[in-house]
């Protein structure tokens, strides 16, 4: 097949758009989608200046998604003094998995000359994920512990580096899966949280042809206690992220974590693959509708919860929490007690 734009040999066919693209036009189309998302979500605020630059912390795991995100952000903002990037890698302590992907992170950040920080569960919490899996004091899946620890470190270090935003490499498939899981679990509060945490634009603006500002898309809720997050890759399907990494020869690490255990997500993944194959464009339409509904849910829940979210500090570590001791500290207590 030939590229629909230039007639050269196509490297991909996107069933959802019907387009065949050659290598150059495919790479350009991914770059364009990511840059459009950055614009539409207003990630660069109007008051960012070369004298008052924004710091963006990028969660860099070494997998294809975060490697591609870091590469595109670097090329987009390399000559823009308003944005400073810091890549943050978290080492969970998983034998035969994380060491290799940390090497990929070091290789990429060296090549692009980006500041790179590495933090480990072992140094931070005196525990490795391999030991957590073996002890498992709460009888939970590995990812349930790991997710709490990772979120804690991302927030802690984003604050430490004075980050204005925390960016992660979630792609279209990841987001559509999360949307579907929230629906199927009937969790409207979670949908509202999802919106305020990482969907929608940062600034309120008018719809085209609409003189009433409130008629425009809803902006994110204020999140005073957390560094706001964003996912600039969320319009790009997973397969295209992988193809991009391959064509651009990026040092992405592809082995899967041996403790990966999100069984329910796996089922949803299969369901979505089947739907997408029979009805191309399903992931895009799920996200378009979900984002609108999530905005409504956020409006409702945000208003309801305002003022009564008793957010305090953990007695032990100072992290924001609604309890005396945060979830991470109580998990660590039970792990260390074994
Ligand atoms: S798959 Fe689960 S256990 Fe492995 S790194 Fe990810 S969250 Fe942690
Ligand atoms: Zn072409
Ligand atoms: Zn704590």
UniProtKB/TrEMBL annotation:
Annotated positions binding ATP: 59-61, 65, 90, 169, 174
Question: Which keywords fit this entry according to its UniProt record?
Answer: ATP-binding, Metal-binding, Nucleotide-binding, Transferase, Zinc
Q: Which residues does the UniProt record annotate as the domain tRNA(Ile)-lysidine/2-thiocytidine synthase N-terminal?
A: 56-189
CDD domains on file = CTU1-like
The residue ranges flagged as biased composition, category Basic and acidic residues, are 219-232
Which InterPro entries does the annotation name? CTU1-like_ATP-bd, Ncs6/Tuc1/Ctu1, Rossmann-like_a/b/a_fold, TilS/TtcA_N, tRNA_thiolation_TtcA_Ctu1, TtuA-like_LIM_N
Domain 2-thiouridine synthetase TtuA-like N-terminal LIM positions: 3-27
The record's region (Disordered) falls at 201-232
Gene Ontology molecular functions: transferase activity
Which annotated residues bind Zn(2+) 2? Answer: 314, 317, 326, 329
The record's listing under Pfam families reads: ATP_bind_3, TtuA_LIM_N
Q: Where does Zn(2+) 1 bind?
A: 3, 6, 22, 25
Full protein name:
TIGR00269 family protein
